[in-house]
């Protein structure tokens, strides 16, 4: 299947999920996760209109980043918007900040401090999603839900880090409906913190939903979905 065909199919599913839940299509943004595909496929995805690209390791992303965004003469509208969605090691912050617009995996203060330091050198503010481990799976990164409010309070000393929402990953379920509790819990966590904490007001967004479960995530309020396999495919390592 061509990328254009995949986009059309996914688009129909997104629209249907929006309709079922009374949401507007414009409130859901798509990140094309290119970690499983080659540079050529990534270029094709971008040319086909997928403007937001997600990667989860700098080592794997850099060839693509330099090919698509490395030319300083390139006008803004001809560049992808990069999202860093994987766990971010502190020693990679210097490579990632300034290149990736959004960070989806803020999960500790030491990382916030490192991002703040690099961002203030560059004179930028970095929009970040705070990753929350809602499902409690040991293999998943992220704060425990009850750690969110104290974390937000402490984050206020790093003004170059701008928390814009929450991110989570649901466990893989063969029956996607079973992920609903996870996505609903993330939304309720955001709503609660927004209502209560002076630091929670900016938490507008929910980054949740992947190939297997994005329709449920949309129904539960996702504003950013991260799609790899279903949208750009998965290629074998060459
Ligand atoms: C790989 C990855 C995705 C995309 O996964 P698919 O199931 O292929 O859609 C989304 N989010 C994160 C954090 C990922 O690591």
UniProtKB/TrEMBL annotation:
GO terms for molecular function: pyridoxal phosphate binding. Gene3D superfamilies: Alanine racemase. The modification N6-(pyridoxal phosphate)lysine is found at residue 35. The keyword Glycosyltransferase does not apply. Keywords: Pyridoxal phosphate. Coiled coil: none annotated. InterPro entries: Ala_racemase_N, PLP-binding_barrel, PyrdxlP_homeostasis. PROSITE patterns: UPF0001. The keyword Transport does not apply. Its cofactor is pyridoxal 5'-phosphate. Residues 27-234 form the Alanine racemase N-terminal domain. Pfam families: Ala_racemase_N. Belongs to the pyridoxal phosphate-binding protein YggS/PROSC family. Pyridoxal 5'-phosphate (PLP)-binding protein, which is involved in PLP homeostasis. This is Pyridoxal phosphate homeostasis protein.
